[in-house]
Amino acid sequence: MIERVTPIDLGGGVKGQETVYSPKIGPNDERIRLYMALGDTPNYRIGLTCATCVEDMPQALPLFRGIAGTISLAKPR
Questions:
Q1: Does any domain span residue 75?
Q2: How confident is the model over 44-64, as pLDDT tens digits?
Q3: Into how many domains does the chain fold?
Q4: Of the four listed, 15, 35, 57, 70, which is most buried by Cβ atoms within 10 Å?
């Protein structure tokens, strides 16, 4: 189940969105939350997926956002 979708800036000026959602399969899936940041450009898609326990998401979210804000791909040579 998707809990939230929010616009986000990834590294290198790439615009995208972040999503927090709960998985539907796996052990203790009701206790897990997933974070996904996804950005699109004309040439590529870049993404980050992280997981933590539901009770730890408030503390983990700033860390996940910080990582997402720095990821980028090198320019082609």
A1: no
A2: 899 999 999 999 999 999 999
A3: 1
A4: 35
How many residues are listed for the chain in this entry? 77
What are the residues facing 50 on neighbouring strands?
Answer: 35
Q: Are 34 and 61 in contact (CB under 8 A)?
A: no
Residue 76 lies in a domain: no
Q: Is there a contact between 12 and 3 (Cβ–Cβ < 8 Å)? A: no
**Six-digit token pair at 55?**
């009770």
Q: How many whole angstroms separate alpha carbon 16 and alpha carbon 49?
A: 13
- State the pTM of this model: 0.86
Per-residue H/E/C for 16-76: EEEEEECCCCCCCHHHEEEEEEEEECCCCEEEEEEEEEHHHHHHHHHHHHHHHCCCCCCCC
